Every structure is written in structure tokens, then in C-alpha cells.
Amino acid sequence: MVMMNDAHRQTEQALASSLSPEGSGEVEEVGQEEPAPSRSRLVGEGGQKEPAPSRSRLVGEVEQKEPAPSRSRLVGEGGQKEPAPSRSRLVGVTGETPVPLKSRCGYDLVAVDLDGTLFDRDGHISKRNLAAVARAREAGVHVVVCTGRSLSEAAGSLDPLQIDGPVITAGGAMTVDAVSGRTMLRADMPDELVVRLTRFLCGRSDHAVLLLKDRFETGVDYLVVGDGLLDPASEWWFANMPVVVERVGEIGDDPYAGHTVRVGLVKPARAMAGVVRELGTVFGNEVFLHHFPALKGAEDGPGRLDQSVHLLEVFSPETNKWSAVAGLAGQYGIPTSRVAAIGDEHNDLAMIDGAGLGIAMGNAIESIKHAAQRVTDDNEHDGVATALERILSGEW
Length: 396
Hints:
Helix content: 25-40%
CATH architecture of the largest domain: 3-Layer(aba) Sandwich
Order of helices and strands: HEEEEEHHEHEEEHEHEHEEHEEHEHEHEH
Strand content: 15-25%
CATH topology of the largest domain: Rossmann fold
Number of domains: 2
CATH class of the largest domain: Alpha Beta
CATH superfamily of the largest domain: HAD superfamily/HAD-like
Mean pLDDT: 80
Oligomer: single chain
Number of helices: 12
Number of strands: 18
Low-confidence stretches: 1-12, 14-89, 93-100
Structural class: alpha/beta
């Protein structure tokens, strides 16, 4: 069990308080309206279906910024462009800055990716990694999970960490409270950009477009748009994750406009490459994007990375993991020079590049290793634990 000392707990509570609706921030507060009622709903793995006229909702088993200026890049399979000024709407609340917790090593905050980093290939967190996270917290280090998943997609796997503070999700688009699920900060994409992107992708792909929504605000994780196919990787993901999914035929029918943080597409890698090239030409610096192998399910086990199927993620230009990490560090009063980040994939590049200490996993792609100052062991050999142990010892 991961334990926290009193000073650390007080600091986490101060941050939660500073981001609560009672704070005196200038950005809009995230509302807490009741989610829209479901139309056709499929419950669990074998639940009965309730017929309805239009949208269908798929429900899994459980319910589930003000970011600092980013050095983000437009990242495809290798291309990199500096983003244009953002037109996204940042929604959240801000308040007093909590007193920073001074660690007993060179870094006060360590941002850790999940898939391919803290998780092993089976999606588990090893005992050694858990023990290393506990020791880092006891030493006064804020260990912050920073994942491309939504909280719904990550929550169950995070239970062993006993997190009682912020988690950065959706590739940096949302910062959420791990206990309540409350959205603390959210970087919405402009509605007109979402509409143009969705129509562009629907017109150039035989696969449906996936809009990631704020579950706390809308009651829905994904809105599937269009009559296109769902890749088997997406079908497996929706069937095995506790996510709520609705589908509409056209983006104009989106009942949750204003709450999109990411536009996505999953399809075969060869076909994806052409879509990404054209998307980059048409939208340029209006977006920040990356694409990488998707998890594809197996009947007898957890999902594995499938190089033949790619996941495309498109955000507003300033939205990435580093913008969220830097913003959270600012809330703690921690300079970015005292932030370390550990990751392995394209969506980790901005935080590896921006942190005071960027650490690549042994299994990381080459661009991550090139950007990092250090390389640790791979995720099958407790690379996160190795990195944390070296940070705590002062070796790194």
C-alpha cells in the first residue's frame, strides 16, 4: 500500500482546495449538470437492450488546466511543427497556490506515463514499481500519473497506487481528481474546429470518428460520429473498458458540443499515413496531433500493441502532456527545472523535452530516447522503479 506523509497529504489537500469551486479563479468553472439520458442502451457484456429512436449508448461495468505555455510540437510519425496560438477554451477553476513540498532529492515532481511505462505488457503495475512510488512520496516527491487514457479507462488499473490527488488524463487535455472523478481543469477544443476536423476525417476515411468527451460533465466518454466502421481494436476497447459510448450519424447532431477534448480515429496504419499527411497540410498549426500503434485485444488475454493498427489523436495546438504537467507544477509552486518525466511514446515527447529531467523507457521509440537526458530499463524490467531509485539516491 502506498503511504503518504502528513506534509504531502496536506499539500495534496491544499491543491484540491485551490482548484475547488470556492476558488477565486478567472476561468470558467466546470459545471456539474446531470448527464443527458441515454437513448438505446446496452448494459455490461450481456445486458438487455432498450430500443430508442437515434443515438445508442454502450455502458461498461462501472461508472466511472490552466496549463503553462507549452513547447509542444505537431508530432506525426516524425514530423514536428511549432503550434499556432491556441483558440481552445480552457475550463476549470483556479485559486491560491499551495505551499510547495520540498523533496529530499533534486526533483519535486515526477510525471509518469502509464501504457508502456508504469504498466507492464499485461497492463499491471509491478510490486517493485509500487514500492518505488511509495518511497518517492515518502521522500516528498509528487508522483503524478500522466496518461493518454481518460480517467474511466485508467481508474481500475490505478487502484494499487492509492492516488488521492490529481491525475493528468487524455494526453494532457484534462486534470481530474482521482477520488471523486471531478474535472479540475479541461482544455476544450473550439466547436468550429471539431466540426471541421470531424467532417474532414469522415470524408476521407471509411472508419468512424471518435470524439472524447468530459465524462464528469456529460456522462459520456466517447461520441462516435458517422456511419463508418469501428476498427476491431476500437470494438475491443469499448467492450473491455468501463466507458460510456454514444453514436450519432453526423457531427451536427452532437448533443455535447463544447465538451470535446480530443478528436480521434483508429484504422490500419497504411491507410492512416495518408490521412495524417493530408490533415497536416489542411490544418497545419491549428492542431497538435500524433499517431501510434493501438492496443488490440486478444480473446485469451490483455491487449497488445499492434503495429498494423494506428490511433490518431488530434488536440488544440497547445494541449499536450507537458502543458498539463507544467500547469500542475505551477499550482504546487514547483519550478519546471525540478520536474522529471518518464515516458515511451509520441504523446510523451513534449513532457520529456520540457521537463528538467526527461527519462526514456528502455522500450521507448527513438525520438523519445533522443529527447531524453536519461534512459532507464524497459517496462518489463521495472524501468520506472529504476528511474525513481536513481532520482532518490541523487545519482540522477
